[in-house]
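Box 3.1 A note on notation
Throughout this textbook, protein chains are presented in two layers. The first layer is the amino acid sequence; the second is a token string describing backbone geometry. Keep the layers aligned when reading.
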Amino acid sequence: MVCLFSLLLLATDPVPPIQPEPPAPSAPEVITIDLPPSRTLPDAVRTLIQTAIDTRDEAALAAIVKVAAKAFPDNRGAITAATAQHDSEVAAKRRSDEQARLARLSNPDPLANWSGEVELGASRATGNTDNLALYAAIKADRTGLFWRHSLRLRADLQTTSGTATTERILAAWQPNHQVDDDFYIYGLAQFERDRFLGIADRETLGGGIGYSVVQQPAMKLDVEGGPALRHTGFAGGEIGEDGGRTTIAGRASMKFRWTISPSLHVSQDVSTFLESGNNNASATTSLDTRLIGAIKARFSYNLQYEQNAPTKREPLDTLSRATLIYSF
């Protein structure tokens, strides 16, 4: 844990040699247009221009100004002057916001700029079937000026009639270094356990290149690929004995996020490892809906594929679940 924290400190963004300037005062939200009196410019046109500016509807303002300038050429100068003032104040506000963003991302404190979520789910059945299932997951992300860190912890446990029937555990850390707006370099350290699939422990160390295919406010799509070193200890065997295996694998993954509305989100995470003697993959599709404040409900569907599973089970497992999420 100490080594992991030390690596996290080394990979945090350094203090830049020149700190961003303090944010300038925000531009006023309402800009007053003082068009000179004119018999040829109806009050309705004045109201439309003013409303578009007050509501910060840039597309509507551009369309209204374009039509008004053509319809009332005698007032073209007054209209242009008013919109020029608006454009100047909007540009100043954007510069101020960008300076504040850079100052926040440049914070060298490794405990700053974290966000994430805690996911919990459980089910209990008694009577003819005695079943208890627990699910917990923690996701935390830190975004810096050049570095991003992603931490994942997940545990899926189930007992039937007092006997454990599911034991899946995953812990992963992925640091990303941004090369430019689209490309980044990533590293990966991951631990897995699924004793009922015959895997006592599986450690993965890897790295590679990622590319942001889509980067929009409402939609994001990242694809990644690179080599990985994996060691698998099989249930009943110890690391280094006959029950263990070390291989070189190829990794490919995809992360998709889509904000359909402020209260409805869709995501999909897919990863696959290709290695000698065994290929495995996982895919999770989730639909999140906001309930109250930071509380969300999640409906997810998971696919888990393990070729040549040690226990000779079916290679494909699926799981549907509903959980509650707290975002921070």
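The helical segments are 2-10, 43-54, 58-71, 76-105. The two ends are 23 Å apart (CA to CA).
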